[in-house]
Specification:
The protein is α+β, with helices and mostly antiparallel strands and about 160 residues long. It has four helices and nine strands; from the N terminus they run E-H-E-H-E-E-E-E-E-H-E-E-H. The radius of gyration is 18 Å and the shape is globular.
């Protein structure tokens, strides 16, 4: 464990950065049961295919997988159940207005512990086209080759 007040990252959604342009990100709490928290502390969270939705003024995360806790027996919940995210109502209404625009969606980017509480970083994202993905990959490869060349010249 880290020091008190230190962020401890549990899971990251790397696929979100590949498939979407992240315009803005916000922190949200998440409503969990005891065995889910214990499983999250062990790092058994998968955000790969997760997305967020707004329903009746509340924010929910769908498709997030939290593995059942080994010693949880009858207290374990469904790993894929819909979980409520905790944000101020004003923030939820603002995000709802932004997601009504074309191409915007809410995607969980990472899960981490902040002062003992599990937090989810939610990103307001716009989908990438295939040519955008290829362009990003080409830039990354070019940057790698430049760094490799500079490293070789130093020695």
């Amino acid at each position: 464990m880290g020091k008190k007040g230190e962020l401890q990252t549990v899971a990251q959604n790397k696929k979100a950065y590949h498939d979407y342009f992240v315009e803005e990100s916000m922190e949200a709490g998440i409503e969990l049961f005891g065995t889910e928290v214990k499983s999250a502390r062990k790092g058994k969270i998968n955000l790969k295919d997760a997305w967020c939705s707004v329903d009746n003024g509340e924010l929910f995360v769908n498709g997030m997988h939290i593995s059942p806790y080994e010693q949880g027996n009858i207290f374990n919940r469904d790993p894929y159940r819909v979980r409520r995210l905790l944000m101020h109502k004003k923030e939820i209404h603002r995000l709802l207005g932004l997601t009504k625009q074309d191409g915007y969606t809410l995607i969980p980017l990472s899960a981490y512990f902040n002062r003992g509480r599990l937090k989810i970083q939610v990103g307001l994202c716009k989908g990438k086209k295939n040519y955008d993905k290829r362009e990003v990959m080409a830039k990354r490869d070019a940057q790698r080759s430049i760094e490799r060349t500079l490293k070789e010249r130093r020695y």
